[in-house]
Design brief:
With about 190 residues, the chain is mainly alpha-helical. About 50% of the residues lie in helices and about 5% in strands.
């Protein structure tokens, strides 16, 4: 910025260009902090003026990124799609007659039921990912790299299996037992 009012900005590499008259002064600013004013010498056209600004890292605020917990993410999803999750086509009215809107809106009913099924499936998949995650499996089985990826694909439990486990011990035992079985088979194939 110049005292005459002219200004410019740097490009992505930090280069800038500005034409000023002799007797003018130029100053620089970054994040609202200005430098001292430098006089422009009229007898030296195209005189390069290189300057660097010292910026301290503590001038930026601390940002902490934390993943959302599975249960909060699931609750937010349920809240956002509440009408879809609670959708149930009722073909009979409370007085015992037929609900004609439901009978003649078959396409809408099928779309809502398909969306409901997909949302429930996605929720169950996220729950499996939450319970059967790489960190847990790696800590229990000791598998790493390609072997861990293959194990996760081959022995991924179903949603129903996880819910059917009476306690966490039974689920963790499944991972340990399948890990030992996988190691035996993996060692033979190599």
């Amino acid at each position: 910025m110049a005292t005459s009012g002219k200004g410019t900005m740097t490009d992505s590499a930090g280069h800038y260009s500005i034409r000023l008259r002799g007797g003018d002064s130029v100053y620089f600013s970054y994040l609202g902090k200005e430098t001292q004013k430098f006089p422009v010498k009229g007898d030296q056209p195209w005189y390069p003026l290189n300057i660097s600004l010292a910026i301290t890292v503590d001038s930026l605020p601390l940002v902490v990124v934390r993943p959302t917990l599975y249960r909060y993410d699931s609750l937010a999803n349920r809240d956002e799609y509440r009408k879809v999750f609670e959708y149930s086509p009722e073909y009979m009215t409370s007085s015992g007659g037929f609900n004609l809107d439901m009978l003649f809106n078959g396409k809408k009913n099928r779309q809502m039921m398909a969306l409901q099924s997909r949302l429930i499936w996605e929720e169950q998949e996220k729950y499996i990912d939450h319970r059967f995650n790489k960190t847990l499996v790696k800590n229990i089985t000791g598998l790493r790299g390609e072997a861990l990826t293959l194990f996760m694909r081959m022995y991924r439990p179903s949603y129903e299996y996880i819910l059917g486990c009476e306690n966490d011990y039974e689920f963790l035992k499944y991972i340990k037992d399948m890990g030992m079985k996988f190691r035996q088979e993996w060692g033979r194939d190599r």
